[in-house]
Amino acid sequence: MNPDGIAETISIAVLPQDNGQYVCEITSSLSNCTQDCTRFYGQTKEHAIARALESLAAQYRQQVEEEQNIDWLAVERAESGEPIQKHYHVILHYEEIAEDESKFEARHNTILGNTVVENAKISVIEISPDLQIEPLERDWD
């Protein structure tokens, strides 16, 4: 049972296209989509769904950050004057279209240098120290 009494509804529709690719439409109570939802195209149905879900996740991350309304430079101090360490969930998202000779080259050229960090969208959400979040780890196999 939702303690706030607020229900969220997320609907996903995946439609095959004549060219063998897919389009995904996602609606949620956050996005306020009606019949004119944004369409997310993908090489496969899973790719289309991943793109749509990432867009929805970005909207939710932005909403959480805005609701917290945290001063980026504010430091809370204890009575002793020592800064109080807080916990933050930091999410980094970067996308690009890479044209390279191989999948390895596309990944290697993307992570080379600081391009990813400089051009990434970064969300910083203050969290409770006992919140059970496992940071995403990439399995490179």
Fill in the keyword field for this structure.
flat, alpha+beta, 3-stranded antiparallel beta sheet, 3 helices
Tell me the radius of gyration: 19 Å
Q: Give the number of DSSP strands.
A: 5
CA-based shape: flat
pLDDT averaged over residues:
85
Helix content: 25-40%
How much of the residues is beta strand, in percent? 15-25%
Return the structural class: alpha+beta
**Uncertain residue segments:** none
- The strands making up the biggest β-sheet line up spatially as 1-2-3
Short description:
The chain has 141 residues and is of the alpha+beta class.
Provide structural commentary.
The chain is an alpha+beta fold and 141 residues long. It is built from three helices and five strands, in the order βββαβααβ. It has helices at 45-68, 103-111, 115-119; strands spanning 10-16, 22-28, 39-42, 87-93, 121-127. The strands form two sheets. It has a three-stranded antiparallel sheet with strand order 1-2-3, covered by helices on one side. Strands 4-5 form a two-stranded antiparallel sheet. β1 (10-16) and β2 (22-28) form a beta hairpin. The chain is flat. The chain starts with 9 loop residues before the first strand and ends in a 14-residue tail after the last strand. The mean pLDDT is 85.
Helix and strand topology:
Blueprint: E1 10-16, E2 22-28, E3 39-42, H1 45-68, E4 87-93, H2 103-111, H3 115-119, E5 121-127
Antiparallel strand pairs: 1-2, 2-3, 4-5
